Predict the 3D structure of the following.
Amino acid sequence: DQQVKQNSPSLSVQEGRISILNCDYTNSMFDYFLWYKKYPAEGPTFLISISSIKDKNEDGRFTVFLNKSAKHLSLHIVPSQPGDSAVYFCAASGGATNKLIFGTGTLLAVQP
Amino acid sequence: DTGVSQDPRHKITKRGQNVTFRCDPISEHNRLYWYRQTLGQGPEFLTYFQNEAQLEKSRLLSDRFSAERPKGSFSTLEIQRTEQGDSAMYLCASSTPGRVGSSPLHFGNGTRLTVT
């Protein structure tokens, strides 16, 4: 069962515009949500996280929004830059081991 | 912080052979995780160590897979009698104690296994 879903395999955005990446989850026991970025031939790199007790967390150009009632979160990147082109993974965690459950990823392409 | 190091970066092996991968976590991290990623999928959890104790194993980890972290530092993942379905990127991650929001997992660059 896919507990974390990213339904858009790819997204193309113009440089300077906003990129919005979406993620849905099914397990109400998740209490932390994270976004990772992955370049080819590299491991995932942590971007930003949000606790389930918050609805927004911001770090520079990156903002994550959490809607618990809808079991939905999104990552906003403003303004988008060509260097942001990568695969973005949504991940969720619930429990003391901090094990992460990942979505299938969204490939973001930022066009110059 | 030199990052999580994995060796080798690539491994090509014939079906039926045994392979072993090594992971060196960030030095002050006592938690270590192994994940597997196949094409078009996100990383899938395999197993987790806190210090030298293996505290959780996924159902994905068949009897042919074994992981160790003998002194609570580096870890090894061994696959016996490899099958073509084992072809994947094997990722290692480490973290400090604490909840993941303040202690996110740091990943290595992975070992890509190809079974022919």
User: Anything to note?
Assistant: The CA atoms of residues 54 and 68 of chain A lie 9 Å apart. The interface with chain B takes residues 4, 6, 31-32, 34, 36, 41-46, 49-51, 89, 91, 93, 97-105 of chain A (CB under 8 Å). The mean pLDDT of chain A is 95. The first strand of chain A starts at residue 4 and ends at 5.
